[in-house]
């Protein structure tokens, strides 16, 4: 019964150990991924220069670095907590095994002493004579011998198991010491980054003294953004109107067919919402597929180094205390020479130019649209079908600060969406 209890305990402990080890591996994986993000952000920081135009971008990148550093520290703390639990659990296992080992040793000693007495005196003969038959006496002696051997094997197995647990515990302690060193290192790096962030904030404060100049720049940028937004809305309205005309033309053709007219009807179209874009069956399927890939769309830029430097929506301006800015999409800082790429299969519906955003491309995916702005070159034209990850243009390299930034928007019908939750890799 004790053996059964021991086996059950070891199996349970092994299962818990495996789960905890898997958790540590997952945390280590997340930490390595976060460190890789920090490395990429560091590369982007090297690309940006401390100019008046670029200082806010640098501040955002540094802020993201600090958040990433804090995430690394949090992951390290979680790893250490799991390791501490493992050490406690292993200590419990060792104490249980030591108790079992002591019992096995005592039982084994009794068996050895009993066998010795039977071999060293007339106990063996008496043991044989007390049996009902000679065969039974032989079986008794074989039983005692095998029992002693079994006890010895059990003791050896437990010693081996205890030795392995002690080794694992020592390894865990070494791992915890390593994590402690890493934690200290990360905290030191975070402190350095916080100092750097404060330095950048001081630069922003200096820029804040030039409020009139900054406000003028902001008004001009907002004017350009409004112009881009009007262009997108105009294109959406035109496409909705065209689709509606086609839908009505089909209905008219269908009525004529009932009267014997042989006019070939247009493809059936239907909108998901009143006043929305009337889709064909093919466009409806594409729209559904686009929606199903939320969180898995590729980033609309080539290259491994890219970072969102201006998120979607309304935000406090970095240098002007009472000024808030509104972003209809996201701004992605990419590596020099990066190209824009389609995030999904679709059809190019418009290519146009807006001051401040250079060339722009609109791609329709059913009743979803994606917009790619700030392109120096365009590789596609209206009416072209594009596929996921297809390169559609080269992103403009700003010579004033040597940055490559893509402005990316995502719309559903007439409504702007936050693109970030849609992107995955």
TrEMBL record:
Residues covered by the M23ase beta-sheet core domain: 326-419
Coiled-coil features, chain-numbered ranges: 17-44
UniProt key word Glycosyltransferase: no
Start-end of Basic and acidic residues biased regions: 185-204, 243-254
Disordered, as annotated region: 185-206, 243-269
InterPro entries linked to this entry: Cell_wall_metabolism_enzyme, Dup_hybrid_motif, M23ase_b-sheet_dom
Keywords: Coiled coil, Signal
Pfam families: Peptidase_M23 (PF01551)
Keyword Coiled coil appears in the UniProt entry: yes
Protein name (database record): Peptidoglycan DD-metalloendopeptidase family protein
Organism from which the protein derives: Parabacteroides absconsus
